[in-house]
Specification:
The chain is of the alpha/beta class. The chain is 43% helix and 15% strand. It is globular. The structure holds 1,3-dihydroxyacetonephosphate.
């Protein structure tokens, strides 16, 4: 059975005051939940967030890393540093980085391997643009994105990956993939992972991301291959984020 997981990607939002306001509120609303909850604020707030999450069952994640332990890499942050700051998770290959920072599949694969080597659990994002979907390329695009990471980490470590399917056209747009559209992609990705490393696909958690709200979360999370969500805008509102996490409760029973 795969435990449901909801991760909040704060992107480049927040302040110390916001971290101090949101995290205790989220913890208060989510006491005793079975769903695994991860919060991913920007780098400067990780230490503060780690302090505020102490004593809760919720975990801390970062939004990127540099695939090297240390060295002359101005402005970069390594997996070891993230562990040192209290992170156990890291988001990799977000479409905003693939598009805006020219991260290609090979770079994402290197980062995934570096994350695992540092003892972090990577959430690897994949997803097609609207023109790729319209051109019938959705499965080809996401299969290439996942395939590069599977090849990069190898069959022994494949089961340690978490995948987030985030259609680019659904991110921050208010357009959500329908549960059926998302399920179709998740199902294909799971088959691909299972074919690459038998057993891995069955245990690998696959999150959906893209305009998830409290109002649409339950119908998405009820799909057989959707194990939770990667939440952007709605993770900046404690009440909304907690409601999304609560929508995932009890959804792992048959997965
Ligand atoms: P939104 O939930 O704001 O659409 O963002 C999704 C996302 O990009 C999470 O990584």
């Amino acid at each position: 059975m795969r435990r449901t997981l909801v991760a909040g990607n704060w992107k480049m939002h927040g302040s110390q005051a916001m971290v101090r306001a949101i995290l205790p509120d989220v913890c208060g609303r989510l006491q005793g939940v079975a769903t695994e909850v991860v919060v991913c604020p920007p780098f400067p707030y990780l230490l503060l967030a780690a302090e505020l999450l102490q004593g809760s069952s919720h975990a801390l994640g970062a939004q990127d890393l540099y695939p090297g332990a240390s060295g002359a890499h101005t402005g970069e942050v390594s997996g070891q540093m993230l562990r040192d700051a209290g992170c156990t998770w890291v988001i990799l290959g977000h479409s905003e980085r693939r598009a805006g920072k020219c991260e290609d599949d090979a770079a994402v694969a290197r980062k995934a391997k570096a994350a695992l080597d540092a003892g972090l659990r990577p959430i690897v994002c994949v997803g097609e643009t609207s023109s790729q979907r319209e051109g019938g390329l959705t499965f080809e695009v996401v299969a290439a994105q996942l395939g590069a990471v599977l090849d990069g980490v190898g069959s022994d470590l494949a089961a340690s990956l978490t995948v987030a399917y985030e259609p680019v056209w659904a991110i921050g747009t208010g357009l959500t993939a329908s549960p059926e559209q998302a399920q179709e992609v998740h199902g294909r990705l799971r088959l691909q992972a299972e074919a690459f490393a038998p057993g891995a696909g069955k245990v690998m958690r696959m999150l959906y991301g893209g305009s998830v709200k409290a109002a649409n979360a339950a119908s998405l999370f009820a799909m057989p291959d959707i194990d939770g969500g990667l939440i952007g805008g709605a993770s900046l509102d404690a009440g909304e984020f907690a409601a999304i996490c609560l929508a995932a409760e009890g959804m792992s029973w048959n997965k």
